[in-house]
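Exercise 3.2. Students should predict the tertiary structure of the chain below and write it as structure tokens, then compare their answer with the key that follows.

Predict this chain's 3D structure.
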Amino acid sequence: MDRGAMLTAALLCCWSLSLCVVTAIRRTDLFPYGALTGDLILPEGDDETSRALTLPRPFYFFDSPFSQLYVATNGIISAQDLPMEKQYVDDGLPTDFPVVAPFLADIDTSGGRGSIYYRVTETPSVLNRLAKEVHRGFPDAQFTPTHAVVATWENVAAYEEQARATGALNKVNTFQAVIGYDETDSFVLFLYPEDGLRFFGTRPKESYNVEIELPARVGFSRGEVPYFIISKTDGPFYSVAQDEYNVKKLSQVGNTGVPGVWLFHTGKRYSFQDIIPASTGGLLATPPTAGYGLYLDTTTPEYEFTDYTFEPETEEEVDGYTLTGKDPRFQPNPAGRDHPESRQPGSLDSPSQDSDPELTYNRKDVPLTLEPVERQYAPPGFPLTGPEERAQRPGEQQPQLPLEVVDVYPPLRGEAPLSPGGHVVSVDEDDVDFDTGVIQYTTENKETCARFQQQCSQNAFCSDYPTGFCCHCRPGFYGNGRQCLPDGAPQRVSGKVSGTLTVGSTPVELNNIDLHAYIVVGDGRAYTAISEVPEPVGWAMMPVSPIGELFGWLFALELPNSQAGFKITGAEFSRHAEVLFNPGNQRLSIMQTGRGLDEHNHLSVDTVIKGNVPYIPPGAEVTMEPFKETYQYYPSVATSSSIREFSVVSAERGTESYTFHLKQNITYRDCRHHNRDATPETLQINMERVFVMYVKEERILRYAITNKISPVGADSSGVELLNPCYAGTHDCDTTAQCIPLEGQDFRCQCATGYRGDGQNCNDIDECAEGLSSCGDYSQCLNLPGTHRCQCQSGFESGHSSHTCVDIDECSSSPCHISARCVNELGSFQCQCLRGFYGDGFHCSPLAERPGSQCERHRDSLQSGGQTSSGAYIPQCDSDGQYRPRQCHGSTGHCWCVDSRGQERAGTRSPPGTPRVDCSRADELERARTHCEHHRDSVQTTGPDGLPLVGAYVPQCDENGQYVPQQCHSSTGHCWCVDSRGQERAGTRSPPGTPRVDCSRADEPERARTHCEHHRDSVQTTGPDGLPLVGAYVPQCDENGQYVPQQCHGSTGHCWCVDSRGQERAGTRSPPGTPRVDCSRADEPERPKTHCEHHRHSVQTSSDGNPPPGAYVPECDENGQYLPQQCHGSTGHCWCVDNRGEERAGTRSPPGAPRVDCSRADQPQRPKTPCEHQKERAQATGSQGYPVAGAYVPQCDADGLYIPLQCHTSTGYCWCVNKDGQERAGTRTPPGSQPKDCVKPDAPKTRCEEQRDRAQANIQEQYPSAGVFVPRCDAEGQYLPRQCHGSTGHCWCVDSSGQERAGTRTPPGATPVDCKKPASNNRQESVCERWRASLIEHYGGKPDPNQYLPQCEPDGEFSPVQCYGESSYCWCVDQDGREVPGTRSNDAVKPACLPSVAPPVVRPVTRPDVTPPANTDVTLLYAQGQKIGALPLNGTRLDAARSKTLLTLHGSIVVGMAYDCKENKVYWTDLSARTINRASMASGAEAEMLINTDLVSPEGLAVDAKRRLMFWVDSNMDVIESADLDGSRRRTLFDSDLVNPRAIIAVSSTGSLYWTDWNREAPKIETSTVDGQGRRVVVSDGIGLPNALTYDSSSGQICWADAGTKRLECISPNGSGRRLIHSDLNYPFSMVYYSNHFYYSDWRRDGVIALSKDSSKFTDEYLPDQRSHLYGITIATTHCLPGSH
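Answer key:
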């Protein structure tokens, strides 16, 4: 009986109320160990590690070889020396070092409590037994072990402090690990004997008085592995058990068929990343414990997507609220409650006890009992049933035990994590087919990783489980396994919003308007913007923040023991929310559907809203109160219900309060086959800040929400005080993770796929750096933080998303019925059957076969029954193919050719010499010479794929060199050439005249004529250095003059020309017609037609010669366009209309059949961008024909841009991408070798990017004109003068492409000399003044990562603003203010809508002061066009009471100071170039003090005691002073200043201090307030001293340095220098108060608080509207020490 039949019989015999089992192994079944076997013994102790156990031969663990092993007390074997136990013993897998862990716990063998034995052995008995175990668990394995390592822990105890011994010391464990390996593979056995495990975990040493026990960990970990060259990351790992439940089962179950015996494939020489468990089945040895049931629905699909619904209610409302009207109401069964259809004990019908003999394996059988399931949910279409429903019906077959039984006892929530290929304990027999009576189940219909792994994300691994498979994100990524995103990276969302919204009584339709969201995952900030929102709806939707709250929940900042929504739902989900407003009882339904990740890894979400919302007056402000909301989680669904409060403040209604009641459920796909990452039943979302705004001018609705998620009831404030990672106050980059450490310490780690120090992270281009996981036949596409593998054409995704397999196109029968299909790698061929001819897609009987290429070639030379004298006539075989050897009948030369008739280099033999064996020509073929390339190019590019009829074909000798005398076989002209094939002037002889002796030494040549220049330019300027094939070559007589009658060698057309070579109208004759007598006197010519003008314009470029290789239109004898036009150089042909415009879809490449242009017009395909651009270029001249010398793009037969483009007039060539945009660095001048356009693009300059974007806009929006396309030089930099091609305006630009004010000239006017300073014809705008000031501020040379305002040509702010050349960008309004929620930091810049044009007279709102109420101490900060007020509560920043003190439209407030005696704030305005002040009283107005002779006023200080103010001007390099009313102005210093920045006045000492940003020699200086006693305080060890303040408690001067990133203090005399903090971000301004420093930070765009005593950050304030903060000062109700 075979194995399958035996198993079948055994299982049938065992199926009764008793279950046949195999008990655990005994200790005597362990591999031999102890002193008698030669074992070494590990010393006693709590944390001992063996000496290195040197292996005779390396073994492979995963795919890495190791030559040494270490055995440790704590139940592990490692491939490297172990760290101290406190670094790993209490942590789970993975570990930092390689580990084989049969029982990782805190074990202590001190005092004789057990022994640990180990050895490496080659004993045959050990190796033979090991080989048998492996072959049983892996029947197909070809494994013969050569060595084994045996480690045994015998009667070892857990560590326990004597002071609290509980008796656990008497519990000891025994277990064994055996490693077997050969040259290529390794396997590991874990053995746990019966009663071998008496304790299942250990207490951590530092648990103090808390009774905690950590379960042991069992599994494998590769340890840290290199990651992107310079860093490391966690390697692969595999967990068998790491909770008490599964640890207890180690001796009761197994994966080899024997309980207590566990076998794993752990290593291989090549590409081994996942531990593989044995697949042999085995039934459990003990009955299940109470509370767990038997799951038999093993055929359930891997993921279930349950659309939970509410049960129908009666007509009465619940709490006055009906969720969805008549929609069913969903009520998932809460934990612990009886489900109406729950399975009951004994619900599984059992066969009679005497139905079959029992199968006994070893010793005993155990009754099988079933207990109730604690919490059950029925999968769709498979309801849970009670006993009465499961009773056997007449004729119904008895249900049988499923083939694979793994978790007979379902695992507890929080079961240990498993790695790829999670363990399977089962009877694995393909032959057995059990019929349950409901579902036919075999191993073929179970969904497994082998069949469905492609459903997992490329950043996930797949694990098999008894009932199916699950996907799990790899380390460094998060999600649900089907979709995984890089840890820590910001996330984008895009989608559409539609539906009908009723505002008041007015319904408004929303038709697929755009929604975009940007989430900073590192601190939980979610920004959502909905564009094109009509005005009445925009105001009314401001309270509907739940639209954006979804994204906050998905990517919330996670506090300990919680997880954000995306880890549960992934990118595919459905959210249904119902909102009930009060008062008003308006109802709104929100449906949001997650549709996965797009090609850029952006989440795609569509939103449908329907219902009513309250009317909100235009211009009103809506304030949403912070709130907490509890989410309840069930399998496949999450629900929540909450009540929100918001207020509406409007001019017409004042302040109104509202609430709304939100109920929602989110359904998603849940992998029910594995409980590893079981979600907590409840979590709490804390939305701390909700900011809503509607921008009327731009019709954009915005939500900004800060989100944190935590366990319900957790005191988040306590956690936040401990660590900035949880408070979101860290300074990590937006593309970095914040890793909490002890206390308030933390570490910034760049997100997966990014590189840097954590504070500055840049995307890693895995494709460019060769780090991609893409396999063969796939293309790597870089994405922010990751990459995507895209299969090449002809391939599709295979077993995994990283591999591509060939598509069998033949399976779809693409070929003609009379053809056969041959599948090839990445392609296929259609071949006509014998007796048919064609391309395989269309086949015709052979009797109708047309002539082959060889035959057409031959016949074209023999047309008319005559053969051109001396012409070479190709020889064809009976099938019409070129004969391998060709001979010239006149010259006697012979050579070998390929299948296309092309001569194979090195095979030519002159007459009388032995001929080459053409069957061996491949061995003899040498590289082709210039002459051979020239000759072959002429012979292969005719429009019909044949040699160009009548074209001159150069003659080469046997060495491939030009024959000294060349003759044109069609015309009979002969001439001498040099070694490059260039005609020597004066050597041409017409037919019938004596030929020049070309062997004579060169004689002085006469100057070439216009005709000769024309002729030679055509023959020498092809892009490949060869003559332009098929181009018209003028014929010159022996004196170099134009022959009166000219003929085109390719087309056969002839015409008369004048002495300048210009065609005489009306003289053209097509081939085969009588030619005009050109000797007749000139007769009056008719006016030239459009075609003739077109032709003439092409034939007369700037140098008087026709542009080489240009397309010359062909006109008939009446001057009209020939219906079919051909390009003489490229061989392409197409049909045209009577205006010469190409008819789309009629173009045919050389060699292809031409379209019949006489047929009636057929529906044409739409023209491509290339064709549109070409058409515009050919039709934009003032006379309606192409502008001479204009660049005309070259398109292929499908209308796509040819990769190499050339300008026929200038000779320049360059490569283009698929959009026709020039690839940077590929332009080559005439005469040089063109670039290889197959190579990847070089990085583009700013000019090239702007040019390409403009060209793309033109192509996408054709035929619109008026788009400005910048001009770049050969290096990709902006040309100093730019002109608009449509308007004719010209202007000068700086190095960054910004227009220089006053340099614009209208068309026809003399352009400004861009090398001279521009005259100021108009006043500089705010944007331009700010830009100029910052350029000076940066020392004239801004770094690439520094911000400069980008201005439009008219001086207004560009809609998109960016930091330097980075992609860190945001949108601004017309005043340059940042639009909240638009910041981006990836390759895709935000889509900003242009601001509306300002009115002629801009309305100016009176800037009234609005001070905060009831505050003693307030920080005042400058933020662009406003001054903000931030009260202090002690030393904490009171963000809840922050407000705008003063709004100053059009200003850029930089320096600030405060007069404590008069309660006034002073500031400098960089935009208006003024110094101003305002009282802090409510309703006060701003007062201008100084508005002359200021260029870049920055730092400002006030001496309240002496009633003076001081300021620095970084452009004028001066320090000045004046009275507080602006009078008595005087200059203190105007020398030895390079870039003064900050300044402070210490009233108590009468001293001034200032910083100088001199990059060559930065310094901090001091003097008295009247300018006396100037001296340097410090100049060593400083870089860019930005901020300066006075510490009144110590009398020291303190500065914050944006270069060194340090905050330091020093005494005025230069002593006592002290470092406060060494790792700031980008400080700008600073003030000191109550032992704390408060500074504005340009990286965080906020106010940072730093304790002087602890040197740690204590607080942070980030304004809702994010932009740079400048000056900062402190306002108090009384003067502080040192200020008066």
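Discussion points: Residues 1-21, 281-444, 1259-1265, 1395-1406 have pLDDT under 50 and may be disordered. The longest helix spans residues 1246-1260.
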